[in-house]
Amino acid sequence: MDNWYEVRTTCDTNINVSAPISAIAFDPYQELLWTGNEKGRVTSHFGSGLHRYTSFRAHLNPVRQILVSDKGVISLCSDSVKMTNRRGLIKWTLSNEDTTDLHCMTYTTMPNSEILAAGKQHNMLVINVARGIVVKKVESESDIVVMRKSRLICCGANSGEVTLMDPRTFKVEHRVQAHTGTISDIDTIGNLLLTCGSSARHGNLIIDPLVKVYDIRTMRPLVPMPFPTGPCFLKMHPKLSTTVFIASRSGQFHVCDIGNTSDIHFYQVNTSSYVNAIDLSASGEMLAFGDAASFVHLWEDRKEAKINAYSNPIELPTIQTPPNITTSERSSLSLIGMPYYKEPLLSVWPSNMRFEVGNPPPKIDPDILNNMKMIDFVGYSPNPGNMKRNQVVRYSRKKHKDGTPKFRSEKERELQSGKSSRGPSSLFDNEAELDATSTKMPKYYKRVEIQYSRFGVDDFDFEFYNKSRYAGLETHIANSYCNSLLQVLFFTPVLRLITRSHIGTACTKENCLCCELGFLFRMLENARGRNCQASNFLRAFSTIPQALALGLFEPDEPDENTPYSMLIQNFNRFILEQLHQECNSNNNPRLLKSLPLEQTSHSMIQQLFGMQVASISKCQCETQTDRLTTSFVVDLQFSSKSHKGKERESKTKAFVDILRTSIQREIQQRAWCNNCQQYVPTIAKKIPKSLPPVLSINCGAGTSVPLEIWRTHDGQNAWLPERVSMDIDDDDILTVKELSSDAIVDINTSGSSKHANYELMAIISQVRVEKEIPHLVAFIKVPKSELESTSKSPWYLFNDFSVKNITEQEVFNFQGVWKMPVVLYYSRVDISDLMDTSDLPSEIDKSILFKDISISKHHSTNKKSVDLLTPEELPQPGTLVAIDAEFVALSQEETEIRSDGTKSVIRPSRLSLARVSVLRGEGAKEGFPFIDDYIAASEPVVDYLTEYSGIKAGDLDPGSSKHTLVPLKIAYKKLRLLLDLGCVLVGHGLKKDNRIINILVPPEQVIDTVDIFHIKNRQRKISLRFLAWYLLNQNIQTDTHDSIEDAHTALLIYKKYLQFKSEGKFEKVLEDIYSEGHKHNWKPTHGMFPTSHIEGSSSSYPALPEMLETNTTEISSEIIENQNSETSETNFSQNK
User: For residue range 315-334, what is the model confidence (pLDDT) as tens digits?
Assistant: First the structure.
């Protein structure tokens, strides 16, 4: 009995009817295996191939047991018993007031004629199999959950008691209390009775680790059989009277002899779920398991095994002979059937596959053809003069290329004109899923570019590229090649918690990448599918000298030879090292449960990504040097190309073998020996001491060997495993094995740092098309807790701001020469149990709102332009604050003049935050600013936009500025804190302000007056200056422009909106504003206010406190667009 092996696994491929298997039984008369699932469906499979034979819906509730007789199949559920023939036709159904909660059934003394059904109900029912009626009711003293029959009927009760009944009189002959809890299963053969169940301990039910054995003749217990994993199912061998099969829910089963418990054979069912039912064939040659994942697993102990020694043939459908068809000249061709074919027919041409063939050539005038003279092969003819001057043949031109979206303003114009918008609504429309062996690149892998209209980036339709709930990252930012890795780090949940905790601390480093990463992650969390940009993170990254020295910056004008694969691998190593240094402190939280208390000095990044490696260098003089280092990234080491034999060998190596030799390796090199006092040949060894929770791997892209290795496999998960197991034994020998998707859940690593099971969570690949600039994409497996739909694949493709759900087969397909994996991320499957993030600092440092921080050397603390918040004024959720910001230009706009004279924007000017002001929006100090910060310039300013921003040269210089000057991080941190506290921002044109600040505000926390005072079917967005003139009788932005004044004005306008809304006249006032705007060409008339247009309006409004009046001339950068388009009726952008 030591040669059992699994031969077949099958499941119902129809997801609408598939459900966990709840009952299973072999047919003792035919070569059939019957299963019942929790949806009440009964299915039969033929032979060892488990070919589907019949399937039908027998019950509305889960099937609890199946009995097979020579006349048909009897199935039982909680409220009914049904008998059908083997084709599924119903013979009878029993369902009445006596069938309330049935659990089990068995034959009586008359096999195939009577059955006894019982359950958690008062009566057991004796049912006549031929007629389907209850012929007798037997009172039950306990709840019966399982029954078996040999010489007596053995009944297992829910109380743990086993009763033995006479099958003729149904009187109880013996009782035995086998378990203190419930009975899981019983089986009997000859004079032996075996039971398994649970016991009650401290109020909980614990599975007994023993199978109890009884002699039915004397009811004396025999020696029990141990089963440590918890026995739940028992099956006695039909031919070997002392052999028993014991199985657990996890799929482990033993085959042992009752008389010799030392002779045990262990097996494991390859299941990703838990086992619900088992059965053994009458021949004893087949064993079947049914699990909760709807899979049926068939095991055999020999080749050509049979269910029964002698089986009846199964009934097959009648083969209908095709009718004789007589054809004539008038017969339809459809009378003849289609022949068998293996390739798709031309008739299945998809309706969406159309090709532009062009118009037919115009007909040439006969006069031209009659007068034409041929010289060589060219024809010449005089012009007949019957065509109008400059007349050309009309032809259609496709305005938008395939895969390019229309601008939002263009779509809006089409909707207003009543035209239907043609073209796809998404980049993924009409795009079929990538075949597992396809080498053709789908269009959604192409490099995506942002197109700019005269209305700026807000006119670009990002939704065309992303229909998911996950945010993409924009391009057209220096070093935006990092987007793919930033997305991978975002979907590392523990790192996300670490960075969120870090931004709540009082970090003083100006260009801290951990802070910027935390700010970026907060944006991606709140985005809900909207596009984001990593401009602040990439700006801080570009200021780090080490990154420049390592060559991590993207060239200004990349070409087809730009090595993005090398850049992203070097950036992967750099960012983890940098985060480790920035998060390291004297009192690091202990996140790794397995980390010894004496090693709590390890940083949080070291605990998450760090692999402890012992470096041993041994000289020929036997001098040995040992040191312990931490490695954050594993570089895959392939054989050198110069060694052709080794190169061929590496191509046949498995991924796990290359990974093992890359982590634990031994090389010969020349190194300095202190004993020899010279450079001598030494043997260097790398020995891993611990395994990280998250394993980062650089694939060694850039050499020819990896390219061939990835592409010599069939794309069916053959070379790159989805799951791997790593183990470091007591001798520091590393073992790496590939795991199947089912086996991984059954290996218990117990949170050890030397035993780990990893699952692939992300792949970064370089996409390169011939003669085009390469780019990077990320394949990310979204955690289950963040999936937008459990019915979809968890894998998503992040191609900058293009996001698409893809299949697992597409992720592991590397057949195309255009895709090359460069970075892999594996995560431990037990990382949630391994890491404890409860010790992370959760308290947010709010003191930054109460401090007057300035890095200006000439900052005067006596002259206060703001009234700082006090701890008593700390904002609460819903607190109203008014905000406005000013900007300066760091680069000029890049444009090109087309051949038709039109100007096209290639890249808009890059703006940077220069000043931000925040005012109280309610309370006793309403209108008083508590933030008015100028932002120190960290990059050269090409244009201060003084006419529009009020910022002058020197205002942003710490050596000359007289204002409150702070680094960008301080100002950003204040705004981020206000949002986290739940403040609601009021302002005018905040959408563009927030974009340049690089902060994403949830819609429920922003009130934009440019949207409030706007009629949806009109393109005009009203300026703040005109609204102040019309609603408040104030002339603003005349001699001086001030962000405090703009924020205060927006607050007053919002208060007026609330007043109009409460009085029920807001719609009328809004129409009057548009009417008045047309009359005055949207320009306020100096010295005259339209008070007559607002009934009951007052010409007196709260002004700014005298102590806060300033003489700075400031205008928001949005005024640029407003003044340039005030005479245009089709202004689309949101202006102030």
Answer: 988 887 877 777 788 888 77
